[in-house]
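In this supplementary section we document a worked example of the pipeline. Step one takes a protein sequence of length 105 as its only input; no multiple sequence alignment statistics are reported here. Step two produces a three-dimensional model, which step three serialises into structure tokens for compact storage. The input and output of this example are shown verbatim.
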Amino acid sequence: MDWPHDPDGEQGSEGMRQYGHAVLAKKIDEEEDFPLSAADYVEQYGDHPIRIDYETVVSVEEIFEGVEKEEFGDFVEFHQELGRAMRENGYWFYEGAERFVGGSA
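The serialised model returned by step three reads:
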């Protein structure tokens, strides 16, 4: 796929090798962007690459296909919903995640 920027370059990884959830969160400002519309986020960043693991890159739009909420009231709500959607759709590779989500990972 042709990405608007390199997923491992400065725009894609904030200067370091960042994966999944961290890259999604870095695209928003916790103080200014809430409430945040899921549709607006996808419209702005939908074609951006998100590295899931060392060999998998998907678009923001693909990840958001599993997001059920239409709007996020705050940063915590954004993180929780994105984490849920990523786990349920195989985009969460972290071992031990079940310790943080009540065993439902």
